[in-house]
Specification:
The protein is of the alpha/beta class and 254 residues long. It contains nine helices and ten strands.
């Protein structure tokens, strides 16, 4: 089983941070088909952790199991030390997980403003939130000014990159402890990929939101991540820092 602690992003792994997410020995799949086998990972307080692998490696299945959209067949998932293994997606969202799914991730028939207000209502159901909805809204609109300019436009009229900005903003409006993103670069031009990943890092650093980022664009993701996991055909094959990964033979990892 591959497992690692959560080293600080600033000390090269000499110290550890409090864990927001711990996954141990996760096995999951669909029917009798096992997609993930014995996957373990952690995300520390304020960390940005990448989960990498080619198409079919099991990355999305891992996110679905972690967030409660898919019941794992084995293993344990903890959020802030609380066992949420097999919990519903509604419960994990209430406890502070927010996922930005791949592809269709906004309400196309609603305006940008309406999408953000709907997401903020989710945060209103949590016991406590450190910031007001208006503060978070101001933050995301400063980060993505085009959304401020087009707030009355239907989300379905936006480009793929703009919809991704709305989806990330919606996730932030819920004030998550942990934000999970599934392939945010899909379908985007390289310049937009850089913009979206830079925004994710800004969220991580300025709001202190812990992030688990699933991606295929390895080189770009390594620039913004604190730690990295790689899975190949559902099995973990690497855990370490971006620097350590650069020392590996990538042909053995992908």
């Amino acid at each position: 089983m591959l497992s690692a602690g959560a080293p600080s992003a600033t000390d090269g792994g000499a110290a550890t941070t409090a864990e927001v997410l711990r996954v141990e020995g996760l096995q999951a799949g669909y029917g009798k088909h096992v997609v993930l086998d014995d996957v373990s990972l952690t995300v520390g307080e304020g960390e940005l952790v990448a989960l990498l692998g080619h198409n079919g490696a099991g990355k999305t299945t891992a996110l679905r199991a972690i967030t409660g959209q898919l019941r794992p067949s084995r293993g344990r998932i903890q959020l802030d030390g609380r066992d949420v293994t097999g919990s519903s997606a509604a419960l994990t969202a209430k406890l502070g997980m927010s996922m930005v799914p791949q592809g269709q991730n906004v309400f196309a028939s609603m305006t940008i403003d309406e999408n953000l207000r709907l997401a903020a209502a989710v945060a209103g159901g949590r016991p406590s939130n450190p910031r007001s909805a208006q503060d978070v809204r101001s933050f995301v609109l400063d980060m993505f000014p085009i959304l401020k300019d087009r707030g009355k436009d239907k989300a379905g009229s936006l480009s793929g990159g703009q919809r991704q900005m709305v989806a990330i903003s919606m996730a932030l409006m819920t004030q998550p402890r942990l934000m999970l993103l599934d392939e945010p670069s899909t379908g985007l031009a390289p310049v937009l990929i850089d913009e979206v990943l830079a925004a994710v890092r800004t969220v991580n650093q300025q709001l202190g939101t812990s992030v688990l980022l699933v991606e295929q664009d390895t080189k770009r993701v390594l620039r913004v991540s604190d730690r990295v996991y790689v899975i190949k055909l559902g099995v973990p094959v690497f855990s370490g820092t971006p620097h350590e990964m650069h020392q590996q033979d990538w042909s053995q990892l992908f």
